[in-house]
Amino acid sequence: MNAGASGNGGGRAAAELHAELGGVTRVYPAVAGYRPVHALGPVDLDLRRGEFFSVVGPSGCGKSTLLEVLAGLQPPSEGKVSFEGKPVHGQVPEGVGVVFQEDASFPWLSVWDNAAFGLRRAGVDSAEIERRVGDALAFMGLKDFQRAYPAQLSGGMRQRVCIARTLVLQPRLILLDEPFGALDAQTRLLMGDEVLRLWRRTGATILLITHALDEAAMLSDRVGVMSARPGRFLDLVETKWPKERDSTIVSEAGFGEVTARLWHHLRGESLKALGQSGAAAAGGRAEA
Amino acid sequence: MSDAAKRSFDILLVLVALFAGWQALYHVAGETALTSPAQTLAYVGELLTTKGDMFARHAWETGRAFLMALGLSYAIGLAIGVALGAHRLSGAVAEPILVALYSLPKVTLYPVILLVFGLGLSAKVAFGAIHGVVPVAVFAMNAIRNIKPAYLKTAKTMRLGPFQVVSTVIFPAALPEIVTGLRVGFSLTLLGVIIGEMFASKQGLGFMVINAINLADVETMMAVAFLLFVAAAIANGILLWIDHWLHKRV
Amino acid sequence: MSRIGWIRLAVLAALVALLETLVRTGIIPYKTMLPPSEMLTALVRLLAAGTATRDIVQTLTCVGAALVSSVVAGFGLGVAIHRFPRVRRALEPFFATYYAVPFFIFYPVLIAIFDLSLLPIILMGFAFAVIAMCIATINGLDRVPRVLGKVARMHRMREFETALRMKLPAAAPHLFTGLKLCVAYSFIGVIASEFILAPSGLGHAIAYAYNDFDNRTMYALMLFVMIVVVTLNMLLHGWEQRLLKRWHGR
Ligand SMILES: Nc1ncnc2c1ncn2[C@@H]1O[C@H](COP(=O)(O)OP(=O)(O)O)[C@@H](O)[C@H]1O
Ligand SMILES: [Mg+2]
Question: Is ligand 1 within 6 A of the CB of residue A39?
């Protein structure tokens, strides 16, 4: 779909910079009776054009915050954010597509109309809409359900509807926030294959947020491991997988090494996060 | 200022605005339509002191009818609600009928009540009860229907007898919703009794209001209406507090 | 129709048949109740003769006016209040009390201000319905998933477009519930007012027929009101269930 981008990650030295976070922090301001929450950073991140980058970290460590700051949905408290060389400022830049952690399909529209939503708004002519939506639905395996409504579909299929809705806009940077978090582990691996197909076909840069080590290890060119809140990158792991890959990679020797390295960092952080949430429940409220 | 204090202040502000609106309406509409807040409060004072005997007699009359109607609403409503909640099919059959009954303008049924019961206490009690029964029944039915099956399974694994299941699982689990129904039923029963007194009685606060209207006695009408408002609002506030408290625990 | 629907129909038919026999055998005296079959024939005759047409048209006009004004105003009010959390928190106790106080008592005040015209009747229907719509709107907006706001920003929508394309459809089932309540409450407010005091209209006609010992007309008109209200209610209930199913599944 996107001819301009000829992406490959895999540690290529002269890879072009696509999006960047520089010294970014995010502190949620205090609300009635609660202290401010320092959720993220400082973090630096250079996304190379066309790479598949995953972020793993314990829950509540600021992964969604990172994604929303990068997308321009939230302002950073400090630091700078840029996409394709231009600063990101209070608005989602054209060319960035986001699929959210929560189900964001529109229950009042059929699958087809959901997918066509952005194009209709943009006033694209109907033949082109027909072509792109048909293409995206076929690609996401939703062709037989185009007349159905989201409430008739399973959670995984609804998430695919959201992906299709983003895909038709031909984004150059796709941000996926735990899109398959609600699925069982086996289905998630299969969905991972679909994301890989999507990545190869569109040539877009992908940033995937996940809490699943195996998913991150299998899909990515690079994996950023985040600490417990406030989230910071502890390690950047390069996988060096070939571009043509799928879920069978889990049986390779290298896969075990990568996951072991991820878990090495994450074990301690996850333990910290466990303790944090306990502490938050016990004494998070400030004495007003 | 703390959050709660700010809220209380805002609520007070709304109250002041309401009274200001009332005062403004008084200036626009004139003495023949309504009395001012100050006049009303003064007359309320008079009703409660020098005219206390007369007022107490009517208030007692209303209170008695209301308590009887409330007893009937609660007893019949709970019996219907529990039965329909326990028996799924009956519940599914009856629910839309109950919803339709709720949306019916029940005043139109008033003549039937009068034809059946004649003028007097029983008519207004019956009228209050038909207003209150439906919400009590609907909430009780849903409360029992919506008890989580896992609770009942847990009770089974503990080998509780039927009486214990009801007293230790079903009753506590259903109570908050049932109480919500009782609260709504309370308000509607009061409404029904007052309407009943306006047409079918020579006693009670509803009669006082309608009689004052017929005699163009604006003072009495406003004062009694005001007292009814305050009493209903206070009762509702207390019930609401209990309701919230029960819901918070679950 | 589903099995439950057939059972419901059978139960209703049995109840009507029971009433019919009770009256025909004289167990319920004729001067209290008419057999349902005669109510129906009386209604058909009444409609054919056209004597009730004016009252019917007037009542439906008033209900229509009360409905439209309360839905529009309640929706606008709900949107406005939802935008200002502080105002909302100050108003919440008043909303919770609104339907618990017998405010119809002030209907005579409205008559004193606006004379015996249709305006006080419409205002009462409006007053009964508007807060229900306002509360439903606030509830609906509360339940718009936050993620939809992010989706809107991803599509670089402005505030107005976000409201129109995201919030409005996402809140639609709740808004529809508000509409359904508004229909029921407009009917209740209008007919109750007509019943208390009005120059014409269905409520007035029922009260008049009662005072005139004209049971035939009285029961025919009651049946008419019931049929209209129940039919409307069933239709709206059905649509509401369909919306809920589409939005939330199952
Ligand atoms: N709007 C907000 N206001 C205050 N705190 C927030 C807000 N959103 C998230 N947080 C807090 O910030 C931290 C990071 O949240 P998030 O980025 O959603 O984590 P993750 O996606 O990694 O689970 C959490 O502790 C969360 O409670
Ligand atoms: Mg998250």
Answer: yes
Could you tell me if B3 lies within 8 Å of chain A, comparing CB atoms? Answer: yes
Indicate if ligand 1 lies below 6 Å from the C-beta of A255: no
Give me the domain span that covers residue B228: 33-249
User: pLDDT (tens digit, 9 = 90+) per residue, A212-238?
Assistant: 888 888 889 999 999 888 888 988 888
Q: Are residues B200 and B132 in the same domain?
A: yes
ipTM of this predicted structure: 0.86
Domain count for chain B, please give it. 2
CB contacts of B33 in chain C (<8 Å) are: 109, 112-113
Query: What global pTM score does this model have?
Result: 0.86
Query: For residue range C15-71, what is the model confidence (pLDDT) as tens digits?
Result: 999 999 999 998 888 888 889 999 999 999 999 998 889 999 999 999 999 999 999
Query: What are the two backbone dihedrals, phi and then psi, of residue A28, each rounded to the nearest 5 degrees?
Result: -75, 125
Distances (CA, A) of A185 to A139, A182, A188: 22, 9, 5
pLDDT in tens, B163-218: 888 888 888 889 999 999 999 999 999 989 998 888 777 889 989 988 888 888 88
Residues 6 or more apart whose CB falls under 8 angstroms from that of B216 comprise B32
In this structure, the answer to whether residues B19 and B99 fall within a common structural domain is no
Tell whether B9 and B132 lie within a shared domain. Answer: no
Instruction: Give the residues across from A233 on adjacent strands.
Output: A226
Domain ranges, ordered by start, for chain A: 103-170
A62: left (phi over 0), alpha (psi -120 to 50) or beta: left
The answer to whether the CB of A63 is under 6 A from ligand 1 is yes
Q: Where are the domains of chain C?
A: 36-247
- Among C151, C164, C175, most A C-beta atoms within 10 A, so best to mutate, is C151
Tell whether B66 and B23 lie within a shared domain: no
Pair (B169, B132) in one structural domain: yes
Taking the alpha carbons at both ends of chain A, their separation in whole angstroms is 55
Rounded to the nearest whole angstrom, what is the distance from the C-alpha of residue A238 to the centroid of ligand 2?
23
Q: Clarify whether residues B7 and B118 are in a common domain.
A: no
Instruction: Kindly report the CATH class assigned to C36-247.
Output: mainly alpha
